[in-house]
Amino acid sequence: xxxxxxxxxxxxxxxxxxxxxxxxxxxxxxxxxxxxxxxxxxxxxxxxxxxxxxxxxxxxxxxxxxxxxxxxxxxxxxxxxxxxxxxxxxxxxxxxxxxxxxxxxxxxxxxxxxxxxxxxxxxxxxxxxxxxxxxxxxxxxxxxxxxxxxxxxxxxxxxxxxxxxxxxxxxxxxxxxxxxxxxxxxxxxxxxxxxxxxxxxxxxxxxxxxxxxxxxxxxxxxxxxxxxxxxxxxxxxxxxxxxxxxxxxxxxxxxxxxxxxxxxxxxxxxxxxxxxxxxxxxxxxxxxxxxxxxxxxxxxxxxxxxxxxxxxxxxxxxxxxxxxxxxxxxxxxxxxxxxxxxxxxxxxxxxxxxxxxxxxxxxxxxxxxxxxxxxxxxxxxxxxxxxxxxxxxxxxxxxxxxxxxxxxxxxxxxxxxxxxxxxxxxxxxxxxxxxxxxxxxxxxx
Length: 445
Ligand code: SF4
What we know:
Rossmann fold, binds iron/sulfur cluster, 5-stranded mixed beta barrel, CATH 2.40.50.140
């Protein structure tokens, strides 16, 4: 399997996705496309004839990780699989990747991966295989239909790209302008996923709540999915505060299958920093928005994203972030140190924050977040809720599923299986998961 100029067409493949759920979704679509081309999945990268590294560009560490992963694909006998770099690093760095390492055969961006079969043929012929085009005609029209689903939960991308241009973010440059997929295509794909065994669908977009088609908004789409038989649960991520419509907030109040969970990034609690980030909302407008969401669905689990150490962030700015987190009491929150990204305005800003200051702030923020997450989980003890079984637990006979609030629940349920919706009483809570006891009620998959 030593690869000279021309390469053997691969028979087996391995797709490894990094980063966000949209990359996971793209990775699944690429795998389904390679299956449709007659290739078969290999257990892991080293054994595969071809490896697709579906990359994330959101932070420096993530981007650099690609090159170390590529290096690890060289086998002891010096041979290597055909290597394709896909995703946001492919889009951002393009031909530079092939200049940095001769081990890469294909570079393909997130809007062009429907052309992977053709790129494989080109690479096999030893020709240039690079495509970071953002074609007008969407890839979705070319991708094969969704097959039987390996899990009871599925992702469904409905919107891509972003027009917000937060000053620290590469997404508008790597994923392009906001595009909403057509209503019919989404409904058809949702039906195929449910026919394929999915009981829960998470609608995805970089700004999923900006989705719109022919005057309809995300809430209309959610209400249509709510009428879909055999679909039990609906979730959506990732949203922007400025696109939370009245219709979407109302849907949290009266759409039964819409789960009580909202991921709504804010990044900072300080207005001067929100301005410097070009977030186009204030601390106060964000908090008032959450009040309206909680009024519609009082038990909702709120989740957020935070960046510490954004250029010019003072101690006072950081205290504002901490106090916002305390005020909201998030069920989950993801927090990161600011990472300057090439080509973004913030990377050239003055007053970059020292790494040790970022470390100290991140520690303090994460301590608060973990405490709030534990408090949210402990408040669930004593509640009765439905759990969708997703996988076996670590202990014999144990199963793991998700609560409506997206918490992991460990339960012993004789006779229950993956895909079943079971009713449990929550009996104990830890920072990252809950323990439940079966009440006896079960809706089989
Ligand atoms: S809204 Fe999100 S994806 Fe868009 S630029 Fe801001 S951080 Fe990036």
